[in-house]
Design goal:
disordered N terminus, D-Maltodextrin-Binding Protein, domain 2, alpha/beta, binds glutathione
């Protein structure tokens, strides 16, 4: 009996003392290849969008750039693959890329039923609607009998069915595989409204022939927590991607930016010292060196910086922080602590 108790106590102590980090097969492959493979959209301003030279930018792109900075100290060591809403999950599970970072909503079916793991919420969104201002529609509740344009393989159709059903409203869906097709169908008057994540509506507005002739309705009909996903079965890779994002959120909370990170290495604050690897051995726990977050923050920035330049006031979209503010500023962005 006594022996059993001692054995249990020793096991617990060993667990608290830490176990050697399991080597990530994906990390090994990425290192040998020399770059990260990142699955993105066909082009969505603010999230993942190529310029005329084929250079990608956006919040989702910065997630991949951050992981590449953490591994290679080079945010450009990434190859991007466009994937449609419909194909994205099979493309990830078949191994076409190491991370899917494509304005993807976390749902139970996707997390538990499709062989993927989500690593955090990079953007809290919700589904909205855009209408022509002169249609007189001022609320979703004015859309009874409407023809609704949307994209296949997304969360949008189910949300419309749930909301319209619950409110006793009828509707007709016109669904397209490509966003450009859905949007031009709406722009040419084939649908009364176009529906998607509200962030996508801000982006879509910029593509319409006369952006000023359209209004985004005030209601949000769903929860769309967007985040990156990795294949199931490589827990160590999942941890690396998860803590790289958490490092960016923690950095914002601690006031560590791409501009001051080198100065911050001298900070006396224990939590900043742990984040930046001056103290502790947190980087090695995800298969990297302890200053992994320094590379991420220096080369890509903290969460607030990536939000502002891609979708916030420093971007064309000008989306307010809203729910994506930090938890201590009235928002939902909350990263677990590094200790
Ligand atoms: N967050 C939703 C919607 C994602 C989605 O595919 N949205 C469209 C409209 S914003 C899109 O990404 N279009 C760009 C593209 O297809 O490349 C989901 O995960 O199902």
């Amino acid at each position: 009996m006594k022996t059993a108790i001692i054995a249990v106590t020793l096991t617990a102590a060993a667990a608290l003392g830490g176990v050697a980090a399991a080597e990530s097969a994906t990390l090994k492959e990425v290192k040998a290849r020399g770059y990260l493979k990142c699955g993105v959209s066909d082009g969505l301003t603010g999230f993942s969008n190529p310029d005329s030279q084929g250079n990608w930018s956006g919040i989702d792109v910065d997630v991949c750039r951050a992981v590449a900075a953490a591994i290679f100290d080079d945010p450009n060591a990434v190859r991007y693959t466009s994937t449609t809403a419909k194909e994205r999950f099979t493309a990830l599970t078949k191994g076409e890329f190491d991370i899917l970072s494509r304005n993807t909503t976390i749902t139970m079916q996707r997390d538990a039923g499709l062989g993927m793991e989500f690593t955090g919420v990079t953007y809290y969104d919700g589904q909205g609607f855009i209408v022509k201002t002169d249609s007189g529609v001022a609320s979703v509740n004015d859309l009874n009998g409407a023809t609704v344009c949307t994209q296949t393989g997304t969360t949008t159709e189910l949300n419309v069915a749930d909301y319209f059903g619950a409110h006793g409203m009828t509707y007709q869906i016109l669904a397209f595989e490509k966003e450009s097709e859905a949007l031009s169908a709406y722009d040419s008057g084939r649908c009364d409204t176009y529906t998607t994540d509200q962030s996508g509506l801000f982006a879509a507005k910029l593509e319409l022939a006369d952006a000023n002739a359209h209004t985004i309705l005030p209601e949000i009909i769903s929860k769309e927590p967007l985040g990156p996903a990795v294949r199931q079965g490589d827990d160590a890779w999942e941890d690396l991607v998860r803590w790289t994002f958490y490092a960016m959120v923690n950095a914002e909370e601690m006031g560590v930016t791409s501009q001051n990170v080198d100065e911050m290495l001298k900070s006396p604050s224990p939590e900043i010292r742990r984040l930046l690897g001056v103290e502790g051995d947190f980087g090695t726990q995800i298969g990297l060196t302890n200053d992994w977050a320094v590379r991420v923050i220096r080369k890509v920035g903290n969460y607030g910086e990536i939000f502002e330049r891609n979708v916030g006031m420093g971007s064309q979209l000008k989306i307010p922080r809203g729910k994506n503010a930090l938890w201590n500023q009235g928002g939902l962005q909350y990263a677990p602590p590094i200790h």
